[in-house]
Specification:
- Helices cover about 55% and strands about 0% of the residues.
- The chain is mainly α and about 190 residues long.
- The chain has a two-stranded parallel sheet.
- α2 packs antiparallel against α7, α2 packs across α10 and α9 crosses α10.
- The longest helix is centred in the middle third of the chain and has 19 residues.
- The chain starts with 15 loop residues before the first helix and ends with a helix.
């Protein structure tokens, strides 16, 4: 009897949480500023770690960072940072926690200049997702010309933990690039 499971990218493995993320979230174009900010925060938190680690803490991050409320996070002070560093639901790394607060402030600064986060980030792909045609996992790059440009621009505006590799992972998760393998059932759907 043939296998009835859909053919998908190999990286989720057999982990139900990773499969759900792959099938419902990864690569779907996002234009909501709050969600884009959340993805930037989570991709920055991932630096040096496996995505599985962050995915297991997604709800903890949502709770600890008050639903990824940019205005509220931007007002966090040192007491809030210390609270977060004691919270086992998130990655307790001082530089990453400080970057989340700084990135919220930088997001508000962009907004004050009349540029929503959505417009700022999507300009690196001319407002349309890049549709790659990778057949094997080893063809997928860790960064791109666009992610390097995004990284430079974000850093110039005060964002932290936004290196080119983090920006590329962000672009994948937020659907600025479609890096589902062409054999994956999600490739044509997103």
């Amino acid at each position: 009897m043939p296998d009835a499971r859909p053919r998908r990218c190999s990286w989720p493995g057999d982990d139900p949480r990773m499969i759900d993320y792959h099938d419902r979230v990864w690569g779907v174009p996002v234009h909501d500023d709050a969600t884009l900010f959340a993805f930037l925060l989570l991709d920055g938190a991932q630096a040096g770690l496996a995505w599985r680690t962050i995915l297991a803490r997604w709800d903890g991050y949502r709770q600890a960072f008050h639903g990824f409320d940019v205005e509220r996070i931007a007002r966090f002070g040192e007491r809030d940072v210390e609270r977060l560093l004691a919270d086992p639901r998130i990655i307790r790394n001082r530089a990453k926690v400080h970057s989340a607060v700084q990135n919220a402030r930088a997001t508000l600064a962009l907004r004050a200049q009349g540029e929503p986060l959505d417009a700022f980030l999507w300009r690196f792909v001319d407002g349309r997702p890049r549709r790659n045609r990778f057949r094997r996992d080893d063809e997928i790059p860790a960064e791109s010309e666009e992610s390097r440009a995004m990284s430079r621009a974000l850093k110039q505006r005060g964002f932290r933990f936004v290196g080119p590799t983090i920006c590329y992972a962000f672009m994948q998760s937020a659907g600025l690039v479609n890096d589902h393998l062409v054999s994956c059932f999600r490739y044509r759907e997103v």
